[in-house]
UniProtKB/TrEMBL annotation:
It comes from the Eukaryota. Coiled coil: none annotated. The chain crosses the membrane at residues 116-141, 147-169, 251-271, 283-305, 331-350, 356-377, 389-409. It is found in: Plastid, Chloroplast membrane. This is Pterocarpan prenyltransferase. The keyword Protein transport does not apply. Belongs to the UbiA prenyltransferase family. It holds the Pfam family UbiA. One of its GO terms (cellular component) is chloroplast membrane. InterPro entries: AtHST-like, UbiA_prenyltransferase, UbiA_sf. The gene is M4DT. Keywords: Chloroplast, Membrane, Plastid, Transferase, Transit peptide, Transmembrane, Transmembrane helix. One of its GO terms (molecular function) is prenyltransferase activity.
Length: 410
């Protein structure tokens, strides 16, 4: 165990270190007088005790700098009229000095990073994309033997790059909405300072490259075109350059949401499974038509409702969303109506199916979801930001259930 003694001066300061092999010059040690009390205390420790005197700003080649230790008549420690503060410092073992290498600290840092990344990536949209890919792919299944290993591999081929591009898009949105998010969404890692601006740029660029690289290796043209359309449109939605920043124009912003969730995702996922995985001719069955209609109404509702909690920050930064222009209450009930229309499409897709179990599962399921939404809509307080935020997350949960029901439409 090592012990150190730090001696600091109130005026000029220097450093002298003594140890087994550090001082071999007699003319130096002969002119330094140590208080006997310090030596006595140090000698009481275990064997191989090292006494270390640290006085700041010492330059070893010139021991006379600051104080004259080697010249004749030079000042000694006891002759100096200055006051010294002696402080005993315990030298920790090396494994404690490097706290970053401690497994516990590494684990804590990893947990904090993953928690921040969770909010950085907008996980609720990633769950929706995964279920949309499964639902759209399931519509291409014509017989039970189609549900095989290639089917699940095909679903992963569709989901993984789409999740990567979603992380890229959420990163770009947070980079350009940094000041707005400090008001509307201060919990996000960019707005709260958990991730630096540079970290956000690097992560966004990395996931963009991963998305296109993975899809290109897959070789599925429906997925390639899907990424091109979604990445370009949502980048234009967020970035603040001439003719871009589409989120400032409420109609264009709503069209981005509808084009993505109502058209690009279900159609590209379906045709990836239909043409690339199952090797069947391109087509547009009635089941896909009902899914597209359902997602069109539902995505319109999402596009309008996502701005309801963000009115304060949008007003301050000149974002004229529909919630800013028409008011939160009016937009809220328009959104509820759009969601109910979507559930009505799901009900129609179920009851018009020739299959009994589709009628029961999809038809009755959408009735239940529509009833739940109408009942819960009355309990949300539009004057409370937390309540409107919980409404937005609630409609995503209803979408998850609806997508599972739509997978049975035939």
């Amino acid at each position: 165990m090592d012990w150190g003694l730090a001696i600091s001066s109130s005026s000029k300061a220097y450093s002298v270190t003594t140890g087994a092999n550090l001082w071999r010059s007699k003319h130096v040690t002969n002119n330094i007088h140590y208080p006997s009390s310090c030596i006595t205390k140090a000698s009481q420790h275990k064997k191989k005790t090292q006494i270390e005197y640290n006085v700041l700003r010492f330059q070893r080649p010139s021991l006379g700098h600051g104080y004259n230790f080697s010249g004749g008549g030079g000042s000694t420690y006891q002759e100096c009229n200055r006051k010294y503060a002696v402080k005993a410092v315990y030298d920790q073992p090396k494994d404690f000095e490097l706290e970053a290498s401690n497994p516990k600290n590494i684990l804590d840092s990893a947990k904090k990073f993953l928690a921040a990344f969770y909010y950085f990536s907008y996980p609720y949209t990633m769950i929706g994309i995964t279920l949309c890919a499964f639902c759209s792919s399931a519509l291409a299944v014509e017989k039970l033997s189609d549900i095989s290993l290639p089917f699940f591999i095909g679903v992963l081929q569709a989901v993984i790059p789409q999740l990567f591009i979603e992380i890229y898009l959420s990163g770009v949105n947070q980079l350009y909405d940094l000041e707005i998010d400090k008001i509307n969404k201060p919990h996000l890692p960019m707005a709260s300072g958990q991730f630096s601006f540079k970290t956000g740029v690097i992560m966004s660029a990395a996931f963009l490259a991963l998305s296109f690289g993975f899809t290109w290796l897959t070789g599925s043209w429906p997925l390639i075109w899907n990424l091109v359309v979604i990445a370009s449109s949502w980048t234009a939605y967020s970035i603040d350059v001439p003719f871009m920043r589409w989120k400032r124009y409420p109609l264009v912003a709503a069209m981005c949401m509808i084009a993505t969730w109502g058209l690009a995702l279900p159609i590209s996922f379906f045709h990836h499974m239909q043409t690339f995985v199952l090797q069947r001719p391109i087509g547009f069955p009635r089941s896909l038509g009902f899914l597209v209609a359902f997602m069109t109404f539902y995505s319109m509702g999402i596009a309008l409702s996502k701005d309801i909690p963000d009115v304060e920050g949008d007003k301050e930064h000149g974002i004229n969303s529909f919630s800013v222009l028409l008011g939160q209450k009016r937009i809220f009930w328009i959104c509820v109506s759009l969601f109910e229309m979507a559930f009505g499409v799901g009900l129609l897709g179920g009851v018009t199916s020739p299959h009994f179990w589709t009628k029961i599962i999809t038809g009755l399921g959408n009735v239940i979801l529509g009833s739940i939404l109408w009942y819960q809509a009355k309990s949300f307080d539009l004057t409370d930001k937390a309540s409107t935020g919980s409404f937005y997350m609630y409609i995503w949960k209803l979408l998850y259930a609806a997508l599972l029901l739509m997978a049975f439409v035939r």
